[in-house]
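In this supplementary section we document a worked example of the pipeline. Step one takes a protein sequence of length 290 as its only input; no multiple sequence alignment statistics are reported here. Step two produces a three-dimensional model, which step three serialises into structure tokens for compact storage. The input and output of this example are shown verbatim.
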Amino acid sequence: MSREIDAAAARILSPLSALLKKQIRVIDGSQTDRSDAFTIHLPLAHLAVISAGGGPFSDVERQVVHEVFDVIHLAEENEVRVQEMQQRVATLERANLDLIVKAKILSEASSRDSLTGLYNRWFVVDKIESEINRSLRSGSPLTLMMLDIDHFKQVNDTYGHAAGDQVLQSVGRLLKESCRVYDVAGRYGGEEFCIVLPDTKVDNSSAVANRIRERLQMTELAFGRDSVAVTASIGVAGLETGDAENIFSGAALIERADRALYSAKHRGRNRVEYWDSQTFEPRPSDSTEH
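The serialised model returned by step three reads:
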């Protein structure tokens, strides 16, 4: 191997290894007995590139290596070509990182509701499905809350849709503040919200549900000269160990929480109702009825 090729190869090996995600070395092709799957023989000065610690080379990786060392061969006459190849490898690495970051940003943005900043309906439904599957495997409990703003149409009709948007944003902020880091709060649609509580039994969710209801009731919003306190009704359903076999879909769990929510609306609003998995009928909350 000539000194020029030796020096050029030494400079290019590190970024090329990073690009291929495997450690590679350049050796004398006549001195290796490695499997062809782990070796790339080059016509350049009878050299060979070997995979020192990774898996075998793919066809794409072989093509990349051949292209790189073709440029190294030219570098014997023009050092600028090597610099161009180094820049190309670095550019590919930066472009790859940039694509990863952009993909994460787009994925996060597509899962959010633009008005409230909470997760959107489709993300939450997927989350419910995945948490049900996890509960079925591990036997861990799962609780779902469905929340609906009381008399929301009256707010829109009386103060306008801008005031309605303000109410929705206020509820969104309150839910974010009331949830644990691994809970998932989302806007299910219109003035209806949902909260997924992993590893939480229904009996243990009472404090959370009533805290949300009470905090919302105490939060007054100003609409012109008027100050309005908005309330919400909450329906709660759970997936307990003994009940897991009766629910196989997110839709079934959502339906239970929704029927409990309907009961809360029917029994006076501004209250929490729980689905009873034993009788398959909603039962009233222990909290004070309003």
